[in-house]
Amino acid sequence: MVDVRSAASAPKQEIRLEDYEAPAFTIESINLIFRLHDDYAEVEARSLFRMKKGAGSELRLDGGPYMDLLALEIDGSPVPDDQFVKSAEVLQLRSVPEKFELGVVTRLRPRENTRLEGLYFSGGNFCTQCEAEGFRHITYFPDRPDVLTRYHVRIEADTKSCPVLLSNGNPGQKGDLGDGRHFAEWNDPHPKPSYLFALVAGNLACQNDSYTTASGRQVDLNIYVSEQDLDKCDYAMQSLKRSMAWDEEVFGLEYDLDVYNIVAVSDFNMGAMENKGLNIFNTKYVLASPETATDADFDHVEGVIGHEYFHNWTGNRVTCRDWFQLSLKEGLTVFRDQEFSSDMTSRAVKRLDDVRVLRMLQFPEDAGPLAHPVRPEKYIEINNFYTTTVYNKGAEVIRMMHSIIGPEAFRKGMDLYFERHDGQAATCEDFAAAMEDASGADLKQFRLWYSQAGTPKVTARRSHEGRDLIITLEQSCAPSPGQGVKLPYHMPIRLGLVGPNGGEVTADLEGDGKWEDGSCIVNLRETHQSFRFKNVPEGTVPSILRGFSAPVVLDHDLSDDELAFLAVQDSDPFVRWESTQDLYSRYLVKQVSEDGEGHPPELLLQVFTGHLADKATDPALVAELLTLPGEIALGQKMESLAPERIHTARETLAKAFADASSENIIDLYQSLKAAQGYSHEQGAKANRRLRNVLLNYIALMPDGEETTQRRYAEADNMTDCMAALSLISHSNFDCRDKVLQEFYDKWRQNDLVIDKWFAVQAQSKRSDTVSKVRELTQHEAFTFKNPNRLRSLISTFSMLNQVRFHEKNGEGYRFLAEMIVRVDELNPQTAARLVAPLGRWGRVDEPRKGFMKDALMSVLKVSNLSDDVRELVEKSLA
Ligand code: TRP
Ligand code: ZN
To answer: Which residues are in the Peptidase M1 membrane alanine aminopeptidase domain (predicted)?
Structure first.
């Protein structure tokens, strides 16, 4: 055997979509035996390989540098040393037969694995994370999504410390091995790629339930958590059953195994993982009780449970050919979980939440140095491409197809997609083709959404000819890395006409589009395209981009009065909200650029008080209508970021609203007091949302401290508690330090609640925040090993606290750079996810620009930097 260790330190090569080659071997089945011990694990893998016609006799297997190869056999005989070459990442076998059984035995050290990929330890239990390329750290294997095979797994472990032994598929035999050890076997009848493999072994408590599918299959449902969390699984279980029913009803898709297992672990790089029949979840997206979780947390549990469940069809039954196609499963599955949550909660409010996330996270990514298409063309480290572009913009791309071809054709397209590709590894192109064939629509130009990066800008201008209203739309898209010139997109723009008395106007359209439920969906395909609406009453106001029908930045020519009109009158909740936000933003942006002071115009106050008095609208939506645009959203509307001025202008307007409407605000606040204690019904959630928005204004009034403190003390649920605590954390109230300390003492045993405690301090707008955050990294409860804890302090600070992260002395940037380096030593994937905020230097002036680049450079100087971090830091400097 030739050991080429030096290769370990060579930086990874770029992988390109255009170089894709189908695998040379198929694998009929794999038999895995895991022998788990306290301080090591031995893995025996026996796979039946078959050479494809015309393929060479060289077999290339992926591997990793953290495992030992103990044995390598072909058909039961050791492979001679001169017949294979092993480097840190590849194992090459020469002249293998056409059909053979490959035996590989490896030894792993799960306790030392802080990278949290492959086999690792969390909370005293063994667990795995194989997406995207973790399986290669368990055994040598073609670790790519287009190699599918049947898995048989046997786990052997200590009976006492590992009573629970789980893997994918249906349970098989189990029994005692003597010597205090036992075993369990699992068979997964569905061929799958290695990234969907999973194993869990440990001491876990279980909540059990069952579900009967539409065709009568009884499915055993289990949620495994640590003993003390068993009382927080109800909502996840209910959400799972609702997901199963929803997918049957909406897409005609049923579950296909006898068991569905979910395990919650506290050390996890992402939200959750859709491993076939054995989902592994971050505890954050399983555990929820009213005392410990906010309403938003409950919604996230439901959304992520749904997301992973929906992957069973969109991801597992039909998987990805290669990782460039990641959005095939992720964009589609996010779209599906968004639709599920819309049906379970409020469609209007869910859409606002999704658009807000898209703008706050994806738009900046698309406008910065890390911009990439929904289907990227090259990468160095695939883990860096689990991005908001692939997930959230990917979901918008699916949503646009849904709008263009309509819901019925979309459902037909889904059916056709499964008919054609069930059991296969497919591409984004396959999906688009199914939608095209099912609908008859031509989506050729539409496919540019997959290949072009950047957020398009759409300008809408009006003109009148007699009684005809002509809306002219113009589109453009700025250059992005590697893409200088963009071709025009095909985008569905949903618009409506609101008549002078507030009613919907339906006018004949000359141009490419059709009316549907009071709105007109026009197809914008040209750079410059006009749509003529015939015979429109005078005083009609166009309502453009209803439901945010395309992920674009819209520039329109509506006056302040017209915005105020739409804010109240439009039947489309998104445009009501957007018009309100536009109105507030216009004023605030002007205040910032002119460093203005003084009173806001009467029109703004009128709109605000109008929303305050609105009894006909869902209180959750009213809450959004009363919320000022966030500092990050305001920053995006400016050429160059002025963080302090944005912060001050926004605070000043909030104070002006609080002063002008104090009585109405307090009255409404009082009237929303829950009649009979806590409830999780939609209505009660909506009331809490509105009441807590009002509390923001009340905190600015003369009795603000007292009211906020009372709210904190009287809260009987985490939603209200956090609403008050977050205000206290921002404030100079006398009670501040005492309240924070009390909260810590009360919850020190609950990791997820302590994460909130870190986050609320990281979000504080107080001027001492950078140094406080730095201090908190020394706190007894802080650890660099747990991704949730890192994110709650470091990502919250750097991604959500614009004014303090962009502190003029550069302290925020230097802090983040230090953290990236510290985390990279333990967990490169999570370290890389911290980099993006430092890449936004194009948006700021000196001296900030220089400080940001210096911070990036300081990371690059570190020796032994991971490929994950290096790729993103280098791109961020380009
Ligand atoms: N497929 C998972 C999801 O979106 C994502 C995921 C979980 C993941 N763990 C990961 C991606 C680790 C990369 C690395 O549902
Ligand atoms: Zn997913």
So the answer is: 235-446
